[in-house]
Every structure is written in structure tokens, then in C-alpha cells.
Amino acid sequence: MLILGIESSCDETSAAVVRDGRQILSNVVATQIDEHRLYGGVVPEIASRRHIENIVPVTEQALAEAGVSMDDIGAVAVTYTPGLIGALLAGVSFAKGLCYASGKELVPVHHLRGHVASLYLTYPDLEPPFIALAVSGGHTHMIRVDGYTSFEVLGRAVDDAAGEAFDKVARTLGLPYPGGPEISRLALDGDPSRYKLPDPHTSGEFDVSFSGLKTACLNIVNTASMKGEQINRADLAAAFEQKVTDILSRRLIGAAEEYGLPACICGGVSVNGELQRKCRLAAEKKGIPFYAPDRKLCGDNGAMIAAAGYFEYLTGSRAGLDLNAYATSEI
Length: 331
Ligand code: KG4
Ligand code: ZN
Description:
CATH class of the largest domain: Alpha Beta
Distance between the termini: 25 Å
Shape: globular
CATH superfamily of the largest domain: ATPase, nucleotide binding domain
Number of domains: 2
Helix content: 40-55%
Structural class: alpha/beta
Radius of gyration: 20 Å
Strand content: 15-25%
Number of strands: 10
Largest sheet: 5 strands, mixed
Bound molecules: 5'-O-[(R)-(carboxyoxy)(hydroxy)phosphoryl]adenosine, zinc ion
Order of helices and strands: EEEHHEHEHEEEHHHHEHEH
Oligomer: single chain
């Protein structure tokens, strides 16, 4: 069965055609990053407008690249939560219109379920249960994936999400948005031991906290500037990346060990090379299987929404033309 997936929760307008939740026929992503970079972060109003402009051509291109028409599509899956409300509404409204015009059924998809489903597209034989650490700009969730549509959140970021912390520290270092890849690149030439960053404490076993680290970086930069000293940006980037990836990999492998399940990462931050390396190494030591999505599927994309939508479809989940968008919601 072919699902047309539509994603517009943040700054990527994307549409994709996926067969049976596993095989990508097309995955068109129109990113707005260059425009938001001018403002140092995503401007919600601009994001909504660009989604409205891009959604039709992106969907047409996704159908064309897959070599199919709407007649071949079994159902339309759309991200309806969580995300920027105006951005989500652009995708939801378009998907509703498309379903009304084509007579296709509409399947609502939670964005984080989409990130988890990016793993099914990368590993055709991967099946639940497993532990998935979903790390993105808006979320850091430790999830026990019990089934394709059954999830238990074991822990989460109690303050800033991992990607958000990367973005904020990057800004402090004068790096452009989005900060994750910039910090990663800079950290390659840095010595992570030069700056000492704190070990954040959290009460929940699988919770994480990054705002203390972010503040520590800010203090280092401000103190140096007050003294008229130069900081070594590469060293600070390396120290920050090392700390965040240590915390995330330790938590993930700890959860996988406790529950006796494979360990997975997904979401925009999961593309981080240092995070992947540490998780892989720690998992190997414990004999735990480890999975990360294909690079192209780590960030937001329609294929992951189509894949998640397929499994939702099988459970009978459908939305009517009264489907609304929600800025926040549990997975
Ligand atoms: O999943 P995603 O594309 O959008 C959300 O759902 O939020 O994730 C975007 C986040 C941004 O915060 C970005 O800085 C981060 O992923 N990111 C990275 C890297 N590439 C993107 N963080 C760390 N290292 C990277 N290489
Ligand atoms: Zn995302």
C-alpha cells in the first residue's frame, strides 16, 4: 500500500511516497534554513508562509518522482502535532483539502512517531520492541517502543531539548543557525578537555538536562569577554559536544540494558557523528544492537511520516476533515 506523507511542523516542507511503511519511492524536502538563518532561528510566521507556498509543488514533485498519481495512493498521512502551530496548520489544511478532493482517507501522525519510523525505512527488518532516543530541536525523549503504535516515555529533557541546546550554544559562539552541525564541525579541531563543564543532575533515571551546560558555556564566553580575553571556540564546542553526547549515549545504553532491548537513536540530532560513535561503542561493549537512521532521514522529512502513517493506518486510525493541529502533545 502506498502512503503519501506530508510534513510541515517546523522549517522543512516535505512530501513523500512510501510503500508498506518500509520502501521510499520519493522523499522531497524543501528546506527554509537559508531564510531563517538570517534571523538566527526559525521565524514561525515566515515558516507558515513558506509552507503554504511550497506544499503544492513539493507534493506534485513527490508524486512525479515516485511515478504515481493520487489514484495510486492508499491514504494521506500528515503531521498534526507537535510543532509550530501555523506551520502544522499549513500541512494539515492542505492534506484535508487533498483528501476531500481525491476521496482518500486521512491518517494523523505524531511527529515523534515519524522520527521513530525513520528507523523502519533504514532497516527493513527492524521490528519493535526497542528503545529509541528521539533527539531533535524540540524533543529529547527516551521512548520504549513496544509496538509500531505503542510507546512508553521513560524519560525526557526536563528543560532544553538537545538540539535546542546545540542551537543556543552555537549562537553564543557566534555560529549561524542551525547550530548542531556548526558545533560539530568546529569541535573536530577542538580539545574537549580545555574547558570544564558541569555534570547536570536530574531526578528521573532517564531524564536529561541541558540548560545548566548551556549557561556554563554562556558564562565562559561572557567572563572572557569582560576580561578582554579570547575564548577558543573550537575547544568550547568540543567540550559541549562531548558532554551532551556522553550524557545521551550513557542514558540510551543504560535504558537498553535495563530493559534488555536494542538501542536506537532518531531525530535531527541523531545525525551527529560523535553521538553515533559513542552509542555504537557503548552498545558494542555491552553486546546491545544499535541502530541509527540513514543520514537523509534524521532531519524532518515526509517519508518518516508516511512510514508512521502506514502503521497507524493498519490500526484503523483515521482523521476527519475536522482534524486540528496541536503545538504540543504526548507521543
Ligand atoms: O528533527 P529536526 O530536523 O527538527 C525538529 O523536529 O526539531 O531537528 C533539528 C535539530 C536542530 O536543533 C539542529 O541543530 C540539530 O537538529 N542538528 C544537530 C546536528 N544536525 C542537526 N545537532 C547536533 N549535531 C548535528 N550534526
Ligand atoms: Zn523533527
